[in-house]
Amino acid sequence: MHEKTLNLGNSCFPFRPHFNHTLGSTDIPGRGINVEKRRGRRRSGRGVLFCAVMSEPRMVKKNKRAAANKSGKTAAATGRPRKRAGTDPARVAAILAGLDAAYPQAVCELTHANPFQLLISTILSAQCTDVRVNQVTAELYKKYKTPQDFAHAIPAELEQEIRPTGFFRNKTKSVMGASKALVEKFGGVVPRTMEEILTLPGVARKTGNVVLGSGYGIAVGVVVDTHVIRLSNRLDLTHNTDPKKIEQDLMQILPQSKWIQFSHQLIWHGRRICVARKPRCIECNLEKLCYAKDKTV
User: Fold this and answer.
1) Are residues 226 and 207 in the same domain?
2) Pair 205, 231: CB distance under 8 Å
């Protein structure tokens, strides 16, 4: 039998074909390659031209299946929860149930008596803790009680009064600008739609969701702050870091009736248990549902 040179893609190698008359094919020993024999019209010397069809070797497929089975057995052996799709409805429902059990009374922690005070407090809360904002507004709302009061405030005085919240110059402009817009466009009343509330100076979608959700009980979206960003990624409910995209992801997997409460519960959980550094996973009732890379247990 003559040796022939077989060209497979960019490689050529000599081989001695073994004919399988039953299957009408030629096997190349040791290479897991099946060569369909097709008699060509042209002949080169004494050899017959062959057309090769390369398929994935059987051993490669077998090894892939073995690796997949091995990884599954490893997860079961270690007692870790099998990784399911983060937005699997059953998993999302379990997370919501866990948050309800841990924080049934979770509410917005910014102290306010009406939607207008909540609007001002939310503007002041940018890059500042709710505790500090509540300390400042406890005295602030005694002096400024209405949108008209803030609209006609003396900027230099207001700056010093809200200075502890940080970025006090920009916040003064936003507070006074929003108050003037409320007086001039909405009769001193905070609007009840996202489209209208976004026309106020210094107000973005997060502030709008806080005011509409906690001030009026209107669910038009999900509040996404630093805690919600961190926890929604840890819980594999989103792979985004942009607040707008995260909000859209959460709105798609959460029932609308949970939009308001979910953000409060996640914020509470982020402040008390699932903190940024060294989360207290041993105290977390969602630990079995979580497979975050920075888990501490």
Assistant:
1) no
2) no
Q: How confident is the model over 220-243, as pLDDT tens digits?
A: 999 999 999 999 999 999 999 999
Which are the catalytic amino acids? 206, 225
Domain membership flag for residue 59:
yes
Indicate the SS3 state at residue 176: helix
Q: Which residues of 130-142 are buried (b: 16+ CB within 10 A; e: fewer)?
A: beebbebbeebbe
Q: By residue range, what is the domain housing residue 45? A: 1-80
Please give the mean pLDDT across all residues of the chain. 83
Query: Cα–Cα–Cα angle for 266, 269, 275, nearest 5°?
Result: 115
**Taking 90 as the threshold, does the pLDDT of residue 53 lie above it?**
no
Question: Which residues on neighbouring strands pair with residue 25, listed in sequence order?
Answer: 20, 36
Report the range of poorest mean pLDDT among 31-35, 91-95, 110-114, 232-236: 31-35
Domain annotation covers residue 297: no
Residues 6+ apart with CB under 8 A from 129: none
β-pairing, 4-8 vs 25-28, is unpaired
Given a contact cutoff of 8 angstroms between Cβ atoms, the answer to whether 52 and 6 are in contact is: yes
Q: How many domains does the chain have?
A: 3
What is the distance between the alpha carbons of residues 68 and 84, in angstroms, rounded to a whole number? 15
Q: Three-state DSSP class for 14?
A: strand
- 254 to 92, 93, 101, 230, 250: CA distances (angstroms): 8, 9, 17, 17, 6
CA distance 46 to 44: 6
Residues 125 and 196 in one domain: yes
For residues 203 and 119, is the Cβ–Cβ distance under 8 A? yes
Strand locations in 55-142 (E)? none
CA 1 – CA 23 distance, rounded (Å): 20
Does the global pTM surpass 0.85? no
Candidates 188, 223, 218, 229; CA nearest to 204 is 223
